[in-house]
Amino acid sequence: MLFDLDDTVLDAGRLTREALGSLYDLHDAGLILAGVTGRPASWGQVLTRQWPVSGMITENGIIALSKEGNRIRVLDRASAEERRDRRDRLDQLVSDLRHQFPELLPSDDVSGRLADFSFDIAESRIVEPAIVRAASEVARGRGARVVQSSIQLHISYDGDDKASGAVRFLGQIHGVDATRARYRFAFVGDSENDASCFAAFEHSFGVANLRGRPSLLPRYKAEGHTAFGFTEIARALLATRG
């Protein structure tokens, strides 16, 4: 089972007792669990160690982390040289965007990112949608990939999205080919940056606070919001498994 973090497993940034219990219940039932999030690789390092998961796919699919004994393996398709080049280009773009759109401020988790940059647009402050759209267009015009979550605006020079990152992780770490992965695994999310996973996985679920255009909707939707919706979905999946 694959799942988003913010506003899906987490409720206003908090991990509830019920949501953590659901993760352990799913794990104990034999499911392979992995988070698929826009949060940074540094979060993935911690959560892979602490949660009952086989790994975390972070930065919207670009950087994955897997648990191998007592060590955490970092999976990045870019070579060290490619990563430095993309980082230099990204730093220049971010500098230009901040000059052109002073309303945009970095998210408080940018120091833990390896491949992308995120602006805080709805976590601790609200940025007008018109500004977010204008900045996104400028970034795309410079050849960058732009992804918007429920709380952040992400910019990178990598081509991966959550679905491609998740499918690659399942292949590399668990030996599941792309076709089987799409039908064997379920995905739970809440936001526009989950659209690729809603489209890729046959069993896709959204919590009640789902955001996005109708074409981005998952196949099933919970009645509960955020972590409560996730717990509802987990219970339904466990009941189906008998």
Model regions low in confidence, pLDDT < 50 over at least 5 residues: none
Question: Given this structure, which CATH class of the largest domain is correct?
Answer: Alpha Beta
Task: Name the CATH superfamily assignment of the largest domain.
Answer: HAD superfamily/HAD-like
Order of helices and strands: EEEHEHEEEHEEHEEHHEHEEH
Strand content bin: 15-25%
How do the strands of the widest beta sheet line up side by side?
7-6-5-4-1-12-13-14
Quickly count the domains: 2
Helix run count: 8
How many β-strands, per DSSP? 14
CATH architecture of the largest domain: 3-Layer(aba) Sandwich
Summed over residues and divided by their number, the pLDDT gives a mean of: 96
Helix/strand/pairing class, anyone?
Answer: alpha/beta
User: Biggest β-sheet, characterized?
Assistant: 8 strands, mixed
The gyration radius over C-alpha positions equals 17 Å
What's the CATH topology label of the largest domain? Rossmann fold
* Distance linking N and C termini: 16 Å
Bin the helical content: 40-55%
Principal-axis shape: globular
